[in-house]
Amino acid sequence: MNGTPVPQKSGAAPSLDNPDLYFNRDLSILAFNRRVLALADDPHVPLLERLRYLTIVSNNLDEFFEVRMAGLLQRRKFGAGPSGPDMLGPNIEIEAVAKMAHEIISAQYRCLNQRLLPALAKENIRLLRRREWRVAQRRWISSYFQSEVLPLLTPLSLDPAHPFPKVQNKGLNFAIVLEGQDAYGRHSPIAIVQAPRILSRIIQIPAHLAGPHDFVFLSSIIHEHVQTLFPGLTIQGFYQFRVTRNSELFVDEEEVDNLLDALADELPMRPFGEAVRLEVANNCPREVIDYLLKHFELGEDHLYALLGPVNLSRLAAIIDMVPRPDLLFPPFVPGLPSVCTRPENIFAQLREAPILLHHPYQSFNPVLDFLRQAANDPQIIGIKQTLYRTTPDSPIIDALIEAAMAGKQVTAVVELKARFDEANNIQMAERLEEVGVQVVYGVVNHKVHAKMILVLRREEDGIRLYGHLGTGNYHPRNARIYTDLSLLTANPDITADMNDLFMHITGMGKAPQLRCLLQSPFTMFSGIRDAIEAETQHGVKGRIIARVNALVEPDLIRTLYRASQAGVEIDLVVRGACALRPGIPGVSEHIRVRSIVGRFLEHSRVYYFGNDGSPKLWMSSADWMGRNFFRRLEVAVPILDPDLRARVLRETLQLYLEDDCNAWAMRADGAYDFLRKTPDAACKSAQDRLLEHYDRSNHHA
Of the listed 449, 468, 475, 538, which one is catalytic? Predict the structure, then answer.
């Protein structure tokens, strides 16, 4: 199932439909989390950053279970057969996924207990167990429990009048085994206590009672005082547990009159979907485990017994509470292109030449300035923007509101269905509508994932269009931790295409005939496929380099296989899931796949084709996945300026192919080899080299 495909016999033409030529998407997603976990284990990474990576894995796995595992269980429930190019049936896939997930989670807790906690303790950052509490600390903790915790707790002993409570998705809960009768003569062998979400899971002890950075878990505080909740009864056991639930929202867009209202009605039910995973403390007795599994209708494969707290993601709070910059990555100041440091109007600058920004090495501020100047410029008559993920209090939203209040025509295409950001986007849409922004919610059954701002300016020779297109969301915080590209341009072909797209999104009609942009769901897949096939015609002279977050679309993979069979040299930088298997004789021996996992989340999508000496290069919001090609509205913009194209090629592709510090090479069996040299050898990190390059540029600006 996951082994390297057997090479075809000499002379036989391999069938590119063979399931053995494709790696399972879900297993590939989990393999990515193994690479992230390796950073938590890496002594070269600053200690608090290692803790951060550990918590990132927990967050990633939570979402994996909420979405991917939930989908697999639904498929099994309804008797679905094999699907996807690897053709694994749901039973086989669930078994394989659960096995790998168990391995990763076990490795997480080994990393925490054997490496991170001892290393943190050496730095006087301690998570104190109950047996380590001193007398003065116990008094403070008892007072904290009485004043801050106890009033919010609701102990619930289970009997016919007190059924099992509605346990929320990913909430912290305690199963308490009791002995004895209460004042009414009732005996309940088990009780449930839910920790309110409003309570901090990590509590810092005042420094005068402890070390400089000593912490205790909320679970330890409740455990210590649980007898208070059940006076007169004997506590036989106290066990943490946590349930992960299906978190997909089900809204039939064709059957609702108002998508915002429909989603708002659906959101309160998300915390109570079907259970997909049960996490318990490893000291939980078998009879309690069996009781919980039966209640949540889960099998043994979906049980995770953990050697530590049941939610490692909450440990991220420590990073913000410990002022130890020496245990974090060194700070950096995002730079600005020299053209963006001038005081003159940005629109005049764009009439001279486009501006390309490489985040986070370069600041996101020019994008904000672009919008702010548009809001304040009396010659601006209209602004159109797509919004996928941002925050309701974002300066982006403030600028749109300011523009609307200044009397400009402002249109915002808000994607309400951005997973786990639905509530934010509803709030944002309502805030925009209150000031007269024309808000639309995209296209029925297609998420609007393209990142575009279009500004209409009345000038002496008529209305001129200015645009921004990006590979990342309009989220200023993410622009500090995600690698993305931004293009600001006044190119008339690009901006005319953008205007046609906005008209298409907000109105109705046939797909527009675009001049230079590729658009999903109409021309992007065929445009990329045609570019690959053109390289196939060039044979050994062909060259393809692509960088995406995921590569799973089977028809595109087959097209890449055919290019490799023709001798085209192909390098793919795929951060996460990759269903293509590189290095298979006769199929993909000319394809190399690598993944870069480092300080910043790699998020840029860039596609390069040699084109026999006349190279083509696009930057895009789209991964090479079926959803991006066929079920989303996406955009890929060509980099037409030769200097900018050479810069993008160097900074986002070539440097990443030279990286031997944060790079992992994929094998044909789906496993990854870490490419870092021995610790004493100099290694080349693409991210570090870009930080150094832009730091030098800042000093010379």
Answer: 449
